[in-house]
Amino acid sequence: MEKRDKEILRRNRVFLLDNLDSLDRVLAELLSAEMPILNDSMVDSIQSNPTKDRKISALLDLIPRRGPQAFRTFCAALRRTDQGFIADELDGKTTGVEKKLEELTVSVQPEEDLDEVDVIPLDDKEGPIPVMVKPCTQAFFQETRMKHKPYKMEATPRGHALVLSNVKFGQASSLQDRAGGEIDLDNIQRLLPALGFETVTVEDKSAEEMLASLKKFASRDEHKAADACIVVLMSHGKTGEIYGTDGETVKYDNILEVFNNKNCPNLHGKPKLFFIQACRGETVDKGTDAADSEGKMKMQQLLGPKTRGTDEVDAKTPLPTRSDMLFGYATQQAHVSFRNSKYGSWYIQTITKVFMEHAKDRELSSMLRMVNKFVSLKSASCPESPEFHGGKESCEFVDTLRDDVYFFPGIKNN
Q1: Mind giving me the DSSP string for 156-190?
Q2: Which H or E element spans position 231?
């Protein structure tokens, strides 16, 4: 394969992981092409991987070694499997994906509306998003469950969710109220039930009350019949900690402790998903800083080693204490995150948009990479505060999930 084509595949790897579907059909096309670039043993090797992402990664690792026509053959297979937009992207043509990105791109509000340093709109309409989650088809549910063996996600409700939102802060805390936080709350309160989660909301709590609410939620008997749980935390924050309305903090490590397999046996072996809208420091990314891999590594160390893609849960087999967890952050370690008083935060708004559109047929990590891609395109417009003007945001997540997570919205347990 030519060096140029190898570079195109390398540069678009995340895009391919996020967008490549119908992998079985693609492999069949590559196997039966006029000049095949795969043989049966190669296809078997690719299919032996435990998750969809790993199968796609194995294919992308193999293609550059399959001769000078491999790139063209791959693009042709994409077009024959109704994925021409991916081939167009690889060929450098304008695609429908780019148009979708434009729809989510920031449209900067008039200067007179800029009333905080951490604001910029993500939409052209003020207030909450009209949330309508697209349903999963029965065919996709059956195919995905059989081929990829993801976490079980078919209980009604899927599970229970706790949303903890701090907007108004006491004077003694020295923290400003989070204008726009109520819009994030509205968006999340609409999204989670549409994904199948029975949702409890707790608002404006001190650090001690926050931890008590988390413990009470983790101890609920209803988790026994659930397939997963979700916790959404929205407040001010700093490195490794999130603020209560009293200015005191709760450490993320203490939150993990509440939900580990020892202290929360009703969620043993089930995905526990945490999404956090909060600053993690005071650094403003102006688009030149490298990714803070050290911060991500430290958080991963708190969770424990990744074991994603191993065998299915066996109740008789001991699991690591902090297995089956995912922590999604609005921003990287030590950095600020951005929020708007009329539109809500970049992170929560983008999660809402991406999940309502793609939860029907996308795996969770794929959607979170999509969220990061869209959020990273934004730039803060704060002309009266140069230290924030032009600020960027890059989301991240760490996990100890062992299998893929699909929400399968709309699928009922028969």
Answers
A1: SS-EEEEEEE-----GGGT----TTHHHHHHHHHH
A2: strand 228-234
Three-class SS string for 111-147? HHHCCCCCCCCCCCCCCCCCCCCCCCCHHHHHHHHHH
Residue 210 and residue 250 in contact, taking contact as beta carbons nearer than 8 Å: yes
272: helix, coil or strand? strand
Q: Round the CA-based radius of gyration of the chain to a whole number and report it.
A: 22
Tokens 């993320």 belong to residue? 252
Residue with structure tokens 């699909």?
406
Whether residue 236 lies in the annotated active site: yes
Exactly one of 160, 236, 335, 358 is catalytic; name it.
236
Summarised one tens digit per residue, pLDDT across range 35-74 is 888 898 898 889 888 788 888 988 998 999 888 889 989 9
3-state secondary structure of 294: helix
Q: Supply the pLDDT for residue 34.
A: 81
What gap in Å lies between CA 85 and CA 73, rounded to an integer? 15
- pLDDT one-digit tens code per residue, 195-241: 999 999 999 999 999 999 999 999 999 999 999 999 999 999 888 89
At 321, list the tokens.
């204490």
Task: Give CA–CA dist 27/46, Å, rounded.
Answer: 9
Respond yes or no: is residue 136 known to be catalytic: no
The Cα 246–Cα 239 span in angstroms is 18
Q: What average pLDDT does the chain have? A: 79
How many C-beta neighbours within 10 Å does residue 11 have?
10
- d(C-alpha 379, C-alpha 76), whole Å: 37
Question: Rounded to two decimals, what is the model's pTM?
Answer: 0.65
- The CA distances from residue 273 to 104, 156, 230, 276, in Å, are 24, 18, 5, 10
What mean pLDDT comes out for the span 100-126?
Answer: 37
Residues with Cβ < 8 Å from 349, sequence gap 6 or more? 122, 123, 129, 184, 187, 343
Other C-beta atoms lying within 10 Å of the C-beta of residue 167: 18
162 by DSSP, 3-state: which?
A: strand
The total number of residues written for the chain in this structure? 414
Q: Which of 75, 229, 264, 279 is catalytic?
A: 279
* Closest alpha carbon to 195 in 247, 141, 154, 254: 154
CA distance 303 to 273: 12
CA dist., res. 121 & res. 103, Å (int) = 13
